[in-house]
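Model it.
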Amino acid sequence: MTERLYYSDSYRLSFDATVVRSDENDQVHHTVLDRTAFYPTSGGQLHDTGHLGAAPIIDVIDLNGEIVHVSTNPVGQPGDLVEGKIDEARRRRFRQMHTAQHLLSQMVERHCGLPTLSVHLGESYGAIELPGNSIDELSLAAAFDASNLAIAQNTVVSTRFLTPDEAAALPLRKGPSNHDQIRVIQIGEIDYSACGGTHCRSTAEIGLIAHLDTRPQRGNSLVRWLAGDMARDDYWQRLSITRELANELSTSVDHLLSVVSQRLEEATQLRRDKSRLLSELMSSRVTDVVEHRRESASGTWVATEAGDFSGKLTSAFASTIAEAIGGIALVYDGTRVTVASRHDSLSAQGLITELCARSAWRGGGSDSLGNIGPVKPGSWPEFQAIVAELLAGGAS
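Modeled.
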């Protein structure tokens, strides 16, 4: 069994220990020490990172009571004395997040009447899973408010090691998973929970708990939130973005929402106007293009450039031309050619197949519509010449 130094001191960032076992597994090294301050992934909380000697620790695993340190480089041989150092910023973030989760879970039980089913304390957010797919938003907001009030009151967080009988006398929100000595995290008189994670000394270290969103999960509700350094970093990021947007739109942050709403309405109207004008332009362009249709042994066909049309509009343009002439339309957008067919016996796919057989172009599609390319701008005349030759020969 590995002695867990973080049990008694969540602020310990360095330690000396003796290597008990070391082996290589799947090109990474596994090292077990007689004692460690590295926290392994468990209880919804991610593992610590840091160094053992010169070896970076990339994962920490709790394996049958032993703490396995995973590294890409070897740490040492059994009997070697090594120095361990914990990544301070990561440890602090998870202390804040874990204590915040205890506090929030308690307040959600009080204000929403819902127990926490599972916990996620990740790299970018924390989450608690609650039963049911519908949560009263006002009650949830009250739970967050109560959590932040407890944070502002600088409530003491203590770690106690109790016997099962001593633990049974406490109003534990979360009971122990074993029946040996029980480690209880106590937040003032607010919350008592059996827990093996790292925690703050007081709620003031959390700083803030901020609700991100609530989303469905497995028929339940997942409440996502930020706390401590994560909440602060998120605040500065959002503030920077809103300031930059306000500057771009020549307004203040206070008026940003109304200005953005107005600009979105204007953009929607512009898209409608553009769609209407393009539709009118397409009708005019089709009329003009049809006048330049060509006749061949295989039927009527037209080759033209896309001009102002792109994407789906290019396909619509080609299809409209093909419909108007009852034949083949080829529309070039500078990169590829859209082929549309309303011919009785020659499909778009059939023509594309024959064109690909004669060149390095590639393409595909259906009987009525397809694409071929890439066709370089300088190759567009050559492309039309090949099409003309195919159709003059009665392509099938």
